[in-house]
Write a structure and sequence with these properties.
The chain is mainly alpha-helical. The protein is built from four helices and no strands.
């Protein structure tokens, strides 16, 4: 379910937003939602980290088997004792 977010902006800016969004066939609220979604997508570190782990996992799967990884972990643990 959607929730409301109340913000205060300058009256002139609000009118310009309304005119600009209408010229694109969008509601002002739709434009604001798109801007917020874009901001979060580009600034959210957890999404970046998740993507990074996905890319690392893909490369590992191409080059190693599960047994290879288990053996490497065992070897490193043995060396660090």
């Amino acid at each position: 379910m959607s929730e409301q977010l109340l913000i205060r902006i300058d009256k002139n800016l609000k009118n310009r937003l309304k005119k600009t969004s209408q010229s694109e066939g969008k509601a002002s609220s739709q434009v604001v939602r798109e801007l917020i979604e874009d901001y979060v997508a580009t600034h959210d570190m957890s999404a970046y980290v998740d993507d990074l782990w996905d890319r690392i996992g893909t490369k590992l799967k191409k080059n190693f088997t599960v047994d290879d990884i288990d053996n490497i972990i065992k070897q490193v643990r043995k060396e660090n004792r």
